[in-house]
Amino acid sequence: MHWISIKDELPKPYEEVFIFPRPEHSGTVYTGEINPNGVWKYFAEDYYGSNQYICNVEFWMSIPEDPINE
What we know:
Blueprint: E1 4-5, E2 17-20, E3 31-34, E4 40-46, E5 49-54, E6 59-62
Antiparallel strand pairs: 1-6, 2-3, 2-6, 3-4, 4-5
């Protein structure tokens, strides 16, 4: 896996991916999604509950699958 520039490729709409730069004031939130209109958003829990915030993204990376216990 590697970071992908948004200039080169975009993820599928609503696919949750790692994002960079990390949103300001997001705590430990490093994931976001892009909607069909090209707007990036991330979700964060705060005093008022779970909210959605618009953010700027330059790079993204797919989130790997969970490991399988064998």
